[in-house]
Design a protein that fits this description.
alpha/beta; Rossmann fold; 2 domains; 5-stranded parallel sheet
Length: 229
Amino acid sequence: MTNILNNILSSIFPEICLGCSAKLLHQEQHICTKCRHNLPFTSFHKHPENPVLQTFYGRVHIENATALLHYKKNGMVQHLLHQLKYKGRQEVGTILGNMLGHELKKEALYRNITHIIPVPLHQKRLRKRRYNQVTTFGQRLAHHLNIEYVDDVLIKVNNTKTQAFKKRAARWLTTQHSFEITDVQKLEGQHILLVDDIITTGATLEACANALKKIPNIKISVATMSIAS
């Protein structure tokens, strides 16, 4: 009876692909086979000198850095992140976290990481959205790397407006004093992986890293779901 009811419901309210909005086949979940095949993977984690790491040269020292996917305006990755950020589809973060987690656990450069920290939202924005779009991504990375996910040490103290259409200088001025540390001792001497959904100019991650640098002997690496092309 349950299977019959599920079949009726799926025919009336079919599950659609989060990447292209096509109807999913019975064996497909969340993202169709075609979209999974066409995801624009970067493979940056296999190359120590890559565009994500280069973004921070001369700005803040980062041990290692990677991004899972290339992001292009009006592309599939933009659609996926829109579903995650504004439509409550947190399974996007889970899927991308599993994908990157499977890869990073094979890489020696990421084996000495001890904690994962998400770029935080301000409390007002968090109450409005009800979730941080980076949470499921970071939690799945933590699962695959067998390390701790920590979301209460780095906090956002300024409720800045969206940075999406600002250039690097404007982003830097807006974000440079937006983040603070609540517990210096908890991460002293640790190697943390700072995670976010997208890297464009790197200003937000730079501001987070500078705040985290107040912790003695800390090492910082970066992983994001995507990097803007």
